[in-house]
């Protein structure tokens, strides 16, 4: 299966699948396996640990000669030096998220980078296009991680933004295989981004307890926390996140506090495990290369079935 569209062209990849930026997780071990499989690995900055991120980018160059990207999660990386830092790294593709697209788009593009901005609403999409982005990552609220308080699903958001903008779209939120990728393409996307599927990949650095919790989770197994004055976030339902849902405690603080013991120690009650509803469709921990290969094959089959059943084939 050969993909040839604006996303493969702009990202310089064979397969328009992007591994989501995820604090502490989207690092060289995972991202290099995605890029080496012909898709696009992304290195995170939301951990705010720029020295570690610099090392991870150096490691990427040892682990792959394929393209990869970097994400600037604006609300989490307040150091304005982040732009020079990213430009210095020589990466060609960057996504910006959790902030105003006017802030960094022009300076990044003037430096020759391709910029996609992550948007959770139509209003944000129109603002990003006005700021001059090359493309959009359209992220529905069923996805894991930081969300907009006004939650809109991918099925609604994607065709709405497609109908009102021209730039290429990478769809995110609820995508884990070829049938959901085909659905996203039918709604106007030219690429997809996977978060929860990649958290539970073999090369993901998190503890297997989290990966297994994703595999065992039902589609109803997440909570959408909407703390006042903080970004909303979707996470695995645990005793701790159920308490947070009732307003007991501070989600962002507990997220940060739990990184070591939860992400890498495997204690699911030690913090907040950002996870999407698509966990309910993930039934095994798999190597990245297998995830990508199966997704492409299932995409091909889904598209040809659709064509055949509609007489378009
Ligand atoms: C553990 C985790 C951490 C995340 N951290 C970030 C981040 O730092 N920056 C960002 O733009 N998105 C972040 N996200 C959102 C993802 O980029 C992605 O859009 C989302 O996971 C897609 O939905 P899915 O989980 O259904 O695949 C995170 C998601 C998860 C699951």
Can you walk through the features of this model?
Helices cover 40% and strands 15% of the residues. It is of the alpha/beta class. It has two domains: 6-205 and 284-303, Aldolase class I (TIM Barrel, Alpha-Beta Barrel), CATH 3.20.20; 208-278, no CATH class. An eight-stranded parallel beta sheet has the order 1-9-8-6-5-4-3-2. Strands 7-11-10 form a three-stranded antiparallel beta sheet, with helices on one face. Helix 8 (178-186) crosses helix 14. The model has no long low-confidence stretch (mean pLDDT 95).
CATH second-level architecture of the largest domain: Alpha-Beta Barrel
CA-CA gap between termini:
16 Å
Give the tally of β-strands. Answer: 11
Q: Give the CA-based shape.
A: globular
Mean pLDDT: 95
Give the CATH topology of the largest domain.
TIM Barrel
Q: How much is the radius of gyration in Å? A: 18 Å
Count of separate DSSP helical elements: 14
Helix content: 40-55%
CATH superfamily of the largest domain: Aldolase class I
Q: What is the top-level CATH class of the largest domain?
A: Alpha Beta
Q: Helix- and strand-based class?
A: alpha/beta
Q: Could you name the ranges where pLDDT drops below 50 across 5 or more consecutive residues? A: none
| Proportion of residues in extended strands | 15-25%
Ions, cofactors and other ligands present here are: flavin mononucleotide
Number of domains: 2
Q: Note the run of SSEs as H and E.
A: HEHEHEHEHEHEEHEHEHHEEHHHH
Strand order of the largest sheet: 1-9-8-6-5-4-3-2
